[in-house]
C-alpha cells in the first residue's frame, strides 16, 4: 500500500475544548504519524484561500468566521493510505451524520445544537489536494518524514 501524507487541521472548536490530545491519540493509534505540526491563528485571508473551492457556497462566510474564531492546530499526517484513513477517522462532514467512533461524532456533536457544521477537524480529500494544502502551511524542511 502507498505511504501518503495528508494535511489535518484541528479546528477552533476542538482546540477550545482541549481535544488536541484525544485527536492525536486517534491518529497515532490508527497508523498515522504526525510528521509536522504548528499551532496558529488563521487570518481571514488564509482561511479564504484554504477553502477557496467553497467561495460561492452559502456557508462560506460562516466557515471563514468559524475557522478564524480561535487558534487551530495544523499537522501533516503520514502513513499507509493516509488521505482516506484520516477521512475515515474524521467521519461525515456534519457531526450529526457521522458514525459513532469517529472524531466528528464523538468530539463535535452537540445535542443542544444538532445541526451545527462546527466539526472539529479538516482532512485533505485527495492526494493532489493534500500536496497543495501541505505546501500552503509547511516548508519542506519543516516536515520530518519517518
Ligand atoms: P473539510 O474540508 O473541513 O475537511 O470538510 P469536508 O471535506 O468534510 O466538507 P466540505 O464540503 O469540504 O466543507 C468544508 C467545511 O465547510 C463547513 N460546512 N458547512 N453549513 C453547511 O452546510 C456546511 N457545509 C460544510 C464544514 O465546517 C466543512 O467541514
Ligand atoms: Mg473538504
TrEMBL record:
It catalyses: a ribonucleoside 5'-diphosphate + ATP = a ribonucleoside 5'-triphosphate + ADP; a 2'-deoxyribonucleoside 5'-diphosphate + ATP = a 2'-deoxyribonucleoside 5'-triphosphate + ADP. Its main location: cytoplasm. Residues 91-125 are annotated as: Disordered. SMART domains: NDK. It is found in: Cytoplasm. GO terms for cellular component: cytoplasm. InterPro entries: NDK-like_dom, NDK-like_dom_sf, Nucleoside_diP_kinase, Nucleoside_diP_kinase_AS. Residues 3-145 form the Nucleoside diphosphate kinase-like domain. One of its GO terms (biological process) is GTP biosynthetic process. GO terms for molecular function: ATP binding; metal ion binding; nucleoside diphosphate kinase activity. ATP binds at residues 11, 59, 87, 93, 104, 119. Its cofactor is Mg(2+). PROSITE patterns: NDPK (PS00469), NDPK_LIKE (PS51374). NCBIfam families: PRK00668.1. Major role in the synthesis of nucleoside triphosphates other than ATP. The ATP gamma phosphate is transferred to the NDP beta phosphate via a ping-pong mechanism, using a phosphorylated active-site intermediate. This is Nucleoside diphosphate kinase. It comes from Methylohalomonas lacus.
